[in-house]
Amino acid sequence: MTATHESAVESATASAEPPPAPGATPPRRPLAARAAAELVGTAALVAVVIGSGIQATELTRDVGVQLLANSLATVFGLGVLILLLGPVSGAHFNPVVTLAEWWTGRRGGAGVTLREAAVYVPAQIVGAIAGAILADAMFGEPLVEWSTHDRSAGHLLLGEVVATAGLILLIFGLARTDQLRFAPVAVASYIGAAYWFTSSTSFANPAVTIGRTFSDTFAGIAPGSVAGFIGMQLIGGVVGLALVAVIFTPGRDADE
Q1: Is residue 70 predicted with pLDDT exceeding 90?
Q2: Number of structural domains the chain divides into
């Protein structure tokens, strides 16, 4: 057998190996790289939310058009960020998502460990604050100006429970049905819709909520409203996980 023939056989054998399954879990990156992805991704997300809000209020006085511009920018920005950084860190950008993943995987399943969650969450919060300051800087606003936009009404808090529960149901429902490859489109679309069908305009994210206190603009939230929003987001996360457990119960074989 000639060397050329042997090379051809080896090449054919290699090509016959099955490719990775779509949506397969990528190799885990170093924790520092994943934390950096969470920080940068959350910063970019908050910069998109606040920056597009400032731009919208400068272009029009119509509140409906302002919200439309803000929601569209968020949809596109979030979709791109999940697509780009999902293979690195999972693109949580959200402490509720991180804690929910830790809870579901705490008995040895897939997901972040408690140590990893303890790194992810501060990175997300720091990123959110940095994103708010960056957005203010880009539009010539004071770098840090506490928001005066009160959002403490009960119906807004209910909206946060609904928005966060739906987000958790979507993400973990996609995971249970092996469809996480659709997360960039699905999650961005859900947030865009929730801007309009929830009374709170769907913050659904404690880190983003904290970041938005640093900007007294269209997308801001007063510091006094933060505790209520975060509390309702955590409750929404629990509700979302309960819905996942009920709806996506593993099937049983017919002979069982």
Answers
A1: yes
A2: 1
Measure Cα distances from 154 to 168, 177, 208 in Å. Answer: 22, 35, 20
Cα 207 from Cα 202, distance rounded (Å): 13
Distance from C-alpha of 176 to C-alpha of 163, rounded to nearest angstrom: 20
For the CA atoms of 9, 10, 16, 18, what is the dihedral angle to 10 degrees? 170
CA distance 240 to 232: 12
Boundaries of domain holding 237: 30-246
- Do 54 and 218 meet the contact criterion of CB atoms below 8 Å apart? yes
- 83, two tokens: 């697509």
123 inside domain: yes
pTM for the predicted model, two decimal places: 0.86
Cα 143 → chain centroid? 25
**pLDDT class for 19, splitting at 50, 70, 90?**
very low
- Is residue 154 assigned to a domain? yes
DSSP letter for each residue of 118-174: HHHHHHHHHHHHHHHHHHHHHTT--SS---------HHHHHHHHHHHHHHHHHHHHH
Contacts of 141 (CB under 8 A, 6+ apart): 54, 135, 215, 216, 217
DSSP one-letter code for 21: P
Instruction: Identify the residue whose tokens are 């949809």.
Output: 75
CA gap 114, 99 in Å, rounded: 9
Average pLDDT score over residue span 138-152: 95
Task: Report CA torsion sign: 229, 232, 234, 239.
Answer: negative
CATH classification of the domain holding 76:
1.20.1080.10
